[in-house]
Amino acid sequence: MHTIRPWLYVGKFRETQDEELLRQQEIGGILQLADHVNSPNIPSLYISVEDGVALPFNLLKRGIEFVRLEKAQNRNVLIACGAGISRSVAFAIASLKEEEHLALFDAFQQVLAKHPQARPHLALWQSLCEYYDENLPYKDILKLILQHKTMY
């Protein structure tokens, strides 16, 4: 599990099942993108999102609204997908964009700084660009990943 902000975490599906880890990180809401897990006393939203497939805008909006609502209620939010590197990262980028009014590239930089394995799939990145009407070629994301990788 990666702490992106004190209130925002990105993780793997298996971490949604680890009640002790959720308690330690004081997770108060979970956006689940791989499969539904019933976590007692933790509000959650399951959205079926496929990696490598364009993200329908209504699902993106629903996920972002859930994250923002949980944050507004002072809850730490975990966004989790299968491996915690693509789908969850895409929603984390969108959440930072909405909450902090960042450009998509800047939001991705913020996520990558805290989660070096962050790799939003091309189709998900393009969905974010279309949703926010920002034209940032995926090659720029790949360059940033490569630069970040060589720094460490």
Automatic annotation (TrEMBL):
Protein known as: Dual specificity protein phosphatase family protein
Keyword Hydrolase: yes
Gene3D superfamilies, per the entry: Protein tyrosine phosphatase superfamily
Lineage: Bacteria, Bacillati, Cyanobacteriota, Cyanophyceae, Oscillatoriophycideae
InterPro entries from the UniProt entry: Dual-sp_phosphatase_cat-dom, Dual_spec_Phospatases, Prot-tyrosine_phosphatase-like, TYR_PHOSPHATASE_DUAL_dom
Pfam families for this protein: DSPc
Domain annotation Tyrosine-protein phosphatase: ranges: 1-134
One function term, GO molecular function aspect: phosphoprotein phosphatase activity
Keyword Hydrolase: yes
Family: Belongs to the protein-tyrosine phosphatase family. Non-receptor class dual specificity subfamily.
Keywords, comma-separated and alphabetical: Hydrolase, Protein phosphatase
